[in-house]
Request: fold
Amino acid sequence: MSDAPEQNPFATPLIPIKLSLDDTIQFNCHKGIACFNKCCQQIDLTLAPYDIVRLKNRLGLGTREFLAQYTVPFALDGQEMPGIKMRTKDETTVCPLLIEEGCSVYEDRPTACRYYALGQMAMRKMGSATDEELYFVVKEDHCLGHQEPRKLTVGEYRKEQGVEDYDAINRGWRQVILKKRSSGPTVGKPSTRSYQLFFMASYDMDTFLKFILSEGFSEVYDLDEATFELLKNDEAERVKFGARFLKQVLFGELTIPVKQNAIEKRVEKRRTEITARQANEKTSDFDARYDGSAEDGNI
Ligand code: SF4
Ligand code: SF4
Reply:
């Protein structure tokens, strides 16, 4: 049996020494260290859904505004799967949220910032249905934290950095990416619409909420009022629901209950709408032609 490693979006090209939660690392980062802020001056920061929620709330922005001002797109799978990175300050590699005193959003900093100088990856053993989360040390020349005498376990470091909640909320989304990467062409090439839904349910939680509250959504998905309320008021729950939704959209997993005959009814409704629109367009054409002609004296 061999391992089939699939690194998550936060992984680096390094060949890592795998660590588990009980393994010990030697590292400390503090304000007095000579390299303070060096890591924030050379960023290549992939953002996960809950990172965006925390940052846009911290900055008092809507998701669209945050994405436009602070991020750049890239392909998560090197092809078409939409990914988001933090934009850097003009013509530099410096994080836009860095100020002289340090990180201006420290309590809401993204997952990758919390993990550094650890990296994280997920692996799935062949034949296994579950992923295994592993960690590795990222050693970069500018980072002096590795020379500090403090020793602690990976588990203790994760707790100290407040990364456990972030991971729990983003876990379903990471599973979607892992599955897409590891299944390759076997799940077929997602349509443009699927990628649009992926972007919305991953990064644009404001628009995703409007989508959830739309009539079309309720016609297809069978959710009770309490779930709608939860999704309306709790963005972390919305992120987790987004991953369930994407498993359904991309892989056909029945993760959200669907109303009986919902798809058929939707198709029928859509067909009626198109027919009505086409009839309306013909009438409008007719009106425009004859109205216009009359005004122009062309009859
Ligand atoms: S978000 Fe904060 S911790 Fe992360 S790179 Fe920017 S300034 Fe540094
Ligand atoms: S010790 Fe490493 S993580 Fe801490 S400020 Fe220095 S470069 Fe950044």
Remarks:
- The mean pLDDT is 86.
